Amino acid sequence: MSGAPEPISAAAHRALEQELADLRDERRLVSGTLRQNGDVGDEADQADELRRADELDRLDRRIDVITERLRTAAQAGPARTDEVGVGSTVTVRFPDGSEETLRIGEAAEALDQTLVTADSPLGRALLGRRPGDPVRYGTPDGDATVVVVSIGADEG
């Protein structure tokens, strides 16, 4: 990741928007349980009140992170198609001749077998590559290679 605003895949964008909506709903529920007056009661009530206040802080921090990520993704625009970057789909060819189309993303998404995170060994090795480029990356079994076949914008 370059430090500049990075594109985000359509699927990741939808997932972040859904998480943001869920967090805002949860925040409304938690904030509704906080007592508005100073009369908190016994120590157990005080501990419970502190726990809810901590939960509210956690929710606020996560809401801020997601809001900022969505804002920077909007600034970045669509993923580049001239070289591999975050948000790209890339088709690679393995030494056995088989091909696979992968999405380059920031964070793993549940049950998405086509997503490669940008900070994984293959993801890091693919960033900045162009069609025809050979790519060497580390695996638990040793070095592996693929060749970039094509690059496209995220389709999901």
UniProtKB/TrEMBL annotation:
Residues 13-76 form a coiled coil. InterPro entries: GreA/GreB_C_sf, Tscrpt_elong_fac_GreA/B_C, Tscrpt_elong_fac_GreA/B_fam. The keyword Coiled coil applies. Residues 81-151 form the Transcription elongation factor GreA/GreB C-terminal domain. GO terms for molecular function: translation elongation factor activity. It comes from the Bacteria. Keywords: Coiled coil, Elongation factor, Protein biosynthesis. The keyword Coiled coil applies. NCBIfam families: PRK05892.1. This is GreA/GreB family elongation factor. It comes from Streptomyces pyxinicus.
